[in-house]
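Escalated from tier 1: zinc ion holo job.
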Amino acid sequence: MKYEKGYTSKNVEDRRFGGGGGGGGFRIPGGAKGGVGSVIAIVLALVFGKNILGSDGTVNFSGAPAASQLPPPSGDTEADLKSFVSFVFDDIQNLWTEEFKKRGMTYEISKLVLFREQVRSGCGAAGAEVGPFYCPADMKSYIDLGFYQQLKNQLKAGGDFAQAYVIAHEVGHHIQNLTGVNRKVSQMSKADPSQENALSIKQELQADCYAGVWSSSVQKKGLLEVGDIEEALGGATAVGDDALQKMGGGRVQPETWTHGSSAQRVKWFKKGLESGSMDSCDTFSAEP
Ligand SMILES: [Zn+2]
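Tier 2 regenerated the structure:
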């Protein structure tokens, strides 16, 4: 994807080096990264997850109190990546600001928090192993940029547009927060816990569809490069519940899915991409 190198965004909070008021990283004993096992845990727990929230809005994570901050590195090896996600994040929000306006609604700008290893969010403390997530309570998306290494190396989904898809998916959850879908889903899940996974899948697929809608706008602006759409589809395929279960060497168990299969995720991303309209993203009244 074409973007402005060196771009900075006032909507990106960089807490990777301990800045930004208490969000800094501390090391997780034993290291949560590396090894297929840990990736599966991540992914099964929540790749792109909204489910960082327990039903009481807390995170079940053994977050130790803030100890020492990581020392700042001699140079920011993720500087280009930070500039890319900043550009993408602003572009996504510009689109949704316009789309909401067209519908007589007001889009509230959210923030993207960059962290390393562990972060405090309005939803509690979380470690990088949960993967990128959105917290409805503070309306922020969180990502440890190291996730992109795992996406490329372990999940075999490389490319900048696969990375952009991840951000667009998380902002999709923010849209759901603004439109009331998140609240409705949690109410319905509480009322009928047997529907919890099915509802979660619909919610996740809708976020994928919204990512597709944004991709369509990027395409219309001529910012896509050859292979970008394939990269996004590769990302959506990689994080399908069936793909992740297979990769973990386990049985494919559809009854345990919370995000949808690879095929479903690709299907809904494409719906958004082809229609360019959020109206096509009603996963709740359609078959997943
Ligand atoms: Zn999600």
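Residues 20-69 have pLDDT under 50 and may be disordered.
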